[in-house]
Amino acid sequence: MALSETENGCSGGEGGETDAIVNTCVLGGFSESAETRALISSLPEIHGDMGTSESATERFLVIMNRYQEQPHLLDPHLEWILNLILDFVRSEDSPPSLVHLGFKFLYIICKVRGYKIFMQLFPHEVSDVQPVLDLLSRQDPTDSETWETRYMLLLWLSMTCLIPFDLYRLDGHLEAEGSKPREPIMDRILAIAKVSEAHIILVYRLGDFLDWSLTTVSQTNDHSIRDIKVLDGVLQSLVNKHTQRLHSPPTVLQCLEKKHLSESSEAMLRKLGVKLIQRLGLTFLKPRLAAWRYQRGSRSLAANLSMSQSAAASAAVTPEVETQEQEEDYDIPEEVETVIEHLLVGLKDKETIVRWSAAKGIGRVTGRLPKELADEVVGSVLDSFSFQETDNAWHGGCLALAELGRRGLLLPSRLTDVVPLIIKSLTYEEKRGACSVGSNVRDAACYVCWSFARAYEPKELEPFVTQIASALLITAVFDRNVNCRRAASAAFQENVGRQGTFPYGIEILTAADYYAVGNLNNCYLNISVYIAGFPEYTKSMIDHLVAMKINHWDGVIRELATKALHNLTPQAPDYMASTVLPQLLTVAVGMDLHSRHGAILACGEVTHALYKVGLQTNSIRDKSGECVSAGWQWVIDDTIQTLHLASSGAKDGIMGPKRMQSFLFTCQLKLISGVTPYASYIVFDGLHCMVYVYCHCLFVLTCLDVLVSQYIEGLKSAQMLTRCGSALALGCLPRFMIHSKLKQVCLKSVYISCQKEGNFTEARRDAVRSIAQVCAKAGVCAHGSPDSVVCSENVAEVYGVLLSTMSDYTTDSRGDVGAWVREAAMTSLMDLTMLVASSAPEILSPDLMMCCLAQQAAEKIDRYRAHAGTIFLPMIFTYTSNLQTTTSLNWNAPSQAFQYIAQLLGLPEYQYHTLLGLTVSVGGITESTVHFSSQSLFDYLKGIQENTIALEQFGDTLLRILRDNLRNDRVCVPFLKMLNQMLANSCFEIFTTQENHQFCVDLLGLCKEFKRSKDISKLSACVAVFCGLIQFQGEVRKKVLSQLLLLLCHSFPVIRKTTASQMYEMLLTYDDVIDPEVLDDVMTSLSDTNCDLNTVRTHRNQLCDWLGVTRPKVVAKVIL
């Protein structure tokens, strides 16, 4: 097999994308010929073995599927393959399994090559009719395993029916061989065709079957699967039968009208109904081309080149005379109106295949109508373009217009009505729930523009060039769907090549070709700027972004649209300032959430761009020495037509202080109370741009205090979204607005929002983020004012606020939502620490911060452990510059992270927090986390077994953690599970050699606090720990047994059962706990403990006597 590879690279535009490499493998021939011959020759030996035959079939299928894209390579080999298989089929000695297997191989070849080519190779002589018919008659039509056999036999029989003889000549003598007369061949074929599911190719080659078909259509329904298949086959037979051979088209049309196929739930039936109706409609009309149709030149290129101007002129006059002569005595049957009505209904169908078939039918039927009636059809199609219609009607209308235009049936006089509708279709989009529909409409509208480029002379489209070009470029650059962008680019390219009147067409195609528009970011941020550089397209692109994209349902599109407006502002600064910004300010305080979000972002981006344009063009310093931006002057007074120096009096224009202050307050009130936290973050980033440019450049400082006060008050709101928005707004304020207010903003107000209060987790997260932002904008100075900068006097307080949020473990129905706060706190700590370390490292005291980061790096959630780890290592290198990192850690992988983080247990400063983090990991429920964290912990403990001091220090830390978290279920339950593993692995074996070791005594005293709990998981873990403590010597063992015996009579049956089971295993593990003489009795008693509570107490008391433990006394309840 010969292979050739071609590589084609295409650039994605100016966005810096890597070129796309397309590899194409071309097969040189049928290289598996020998293997195929061997497979087919082996069929007689393998047909009886199901496994072997399936393996051979799969191998043959793999071979054939390689030629799906180049099936013509099989043509030289099809004949010998077919003959080889037919030898088995024709042999009388071949068993049925071999015949079916052979036909299965034939079907695989037929599927790859196509039945129209393959069926021609079947033998189709007179002698083949009877054997094929007999073989087909012996098949069971209900057998689903042999359908390939029936399918191939029907194709074969359809070829034999093409012999140039009447089939009745093959009947011979029809006298009865026995008691019954023989059935004629024609009747046998019809009987087989009528009961088969794949009779389409056969029946339309037979004679008169119309009556049976119409009866079948009338009697079947589309509720039964079998009837649906039969109806599908009958309709396909009627469609495939030549329309000239339908003897009674009105009868067929009447039958279809009664059937109401347009109301069927099966899309294929509706499509076949539309297809059949259009073909019936063609039978009512004369088979001719409309002489009145619009023709652009000749279909022959040679004729176009040789045609002289005079010949062209005479050719343009002749059709008018012929049209008048031909239409004088041409009557249109009434049935045509019914046909067109059905086709117009099909244009609004919910399935694309039905609409496409109806559109092609409209084009074919209209091509045979007189000019006046054809114009009425065009008007009916244009009625589909109503906003009261669904997107399906718009899509069908576009397809129909494209067909009409392509066939020259849409006359230039109609373009004034059609072009505005196509322009609307190019931007059609209807919101449905969380998404939208209309991409198919826009794609079809591009197809209409593509067909117009081929159908009309440039002079006909010249009045509409600007509209069509702008609309196509807007779709090619700003459409959300990549298929629509590429369709618009292709349509634009077709118009540029065939019309030659599109402004700057070649230049634009160079930047916005088929491949370049594939990247959405590149389209919005790069290609749009290049196209907007041509004045014909600038304002239309800006207007589209403002009207259609900044209020888009997709947040990504809204953000890209605002960035595009920022990039387009230098192209039309006057238009942006005088027209666009006032529109955006109105939308920014509207009711629609998406519009508010996009408008605020757009205001910020446009204002920022105007400010930069002003700095680059004209700027001065007024008496105070501050810069006055000429860009903002356009917003202040829209009567100024050109850039010039702005005076301080410009502040009293249409966007004076009062109006802007009111606008900012209104935006704040509406936005922070109505958007999601994510949207708030982006919205206030845009709002910050507006505040910065307006207030900082034009000295509107009187409203700053009031604005900051409003945001601070919002931090105390009862609404969570209001708190989030206020916190984000404070973080986005520019430096001059928080100058001399750092203590008020950062340390008091935001601190209030950071407190664990209610369900304001998102608000705490945003407040933590804002602290770092505010501090970054304020700056760092070791001896500065605590009200203006981060200094030695307030740095500890700032760190204290952030470190306090590291202990936020709030949970709700969404899980550990406190992790959001911890993650934000870690990020803010890193940003703040890097800032302080670069400016005033002497005021840092990072010990507690590093310990908290170590704790987070040892916890169970992979994402937050990785986040902490990636912050922890850079922090270490920040403080110790001589350290070199030699290991690249994947903190997300427990197998890598815990083996390093566990080594911090050897450092006394880190031991408490690291062990606290490991506690929730070792005692967790995720298998991989538990395995690797416990393994790392035990490896550390194994290394200090001989170091009594280190082990006692570890034990003290362990007790401290338990003592600090006795009432914290998040820690104490995993702690008990971890402790149980430690005891089971003899991690404290050195303590067991001493009687009444203080570690065991203190641990027992703390664990006794859990016996009053009602938490089953905590009690079960406590039972396991008590059983592990039995290995310690002295009086402490008696106390442990006493606690276990108390739990043996717990009010919860599951705890009683767990305690008995654990004690049973404990006594088997530690044989020195009980006297061997009573061991069997104790074991038997523990095995029978699962019974009534009163009976359990009797058994428990007996166990106390056997174990030498004082019987517990029942304490009477005091009733007041």
UniProtKB/TrEMBL annotation:
Bilayer-crossing regions: none
Principal subcellular localisation of the protein: other
GO molecular function, one term: GTPase activator activity
Annotated Tubulin-folding cofactor D ARM repeats domain residues: 269-506
Source organism superkingdom: Eukaryota
This protein's record includes keyword Cell membrane: yes
Keyword flag Chaperone: yes
Pfam families in the record: ARM_TBCD, ARM_TBCD_2nd, TFCD_C
Compartmental location: Cell junction, Adherens junction; Cell junction, Tight junction; Cytoplasm, Cytoskeleton, Microtubule organizing center, Centrosome; Lateral cell membrane
GO biological process: adherens junction assembly; bicellular tight junction assembly; microtubule cytoskeleton organization; negative regulation of microtubule polymerization; post-chaperonin tubulin folding pathway; tubulin complex assembly
GO cellular component, one term: centrosome
Tubulin-folding cofactor D C-terminal domain: residues covered: 849-1018
InterPro entries: ARM-like (IPR011989), ARM-type_fold (IPR016024), ARM_TBCD_2nd (IPR058033), TBCD (IPR033162), TBCD_C (IPR022577)
Keyword field: Cell junction, Cell membrane, Chaperone, Cytoplasm, Cytoskeleton, Membrane, Repeat, Tight junction
Function: Tubulin-folding protein implicated in the first step of the tubulin folding pathway and required for tubulin complex assembly. Involved in the regulation of microtubule polymerization or depolymerization, it modulates microtubule dynamics by capturing GTP-bound beta-tubulin (TUBB). Its ability to interact with beta tubulin is regulated via its interaction with ARL2. Acts as a GTPase-activating protein (GAP) for ARL2. Induces microtubule disruption in absence of ARL2. Increases degradation of beta tubulin, when overexpressed in polarized cells.
Subunit organization: Found in a complex with at least ARL2, PPP2CB, PPP2R1A, PPP2R2A, PPP2R5E and TBCD. Interacts with PPP2CB. Part of a supercomplex made of cofactors A to E. Cofactors A and D function by capturing and stabilizing tubulin in a quasi-native conformation. Cofactor E binds to the cofactor D-tubulin complex; interaction with cofactor C then causes the release of tubulin polypeptides that are committed to the native state. Interacts with ARL2; interaction is enhanced with the GDP-bound form of ARL2. Does not interact with ARL3, ARL4A and ARL4D. Interacts with beta tubulin. Interacts with TBCE.
UniProt record similarity statement: Belongs to the TBCD family.
Protein name: Tubulin-specific chaperone D
Species, as recorded: Amphiprion ocellaris (Clown anemonefish)
Gene: TBCD
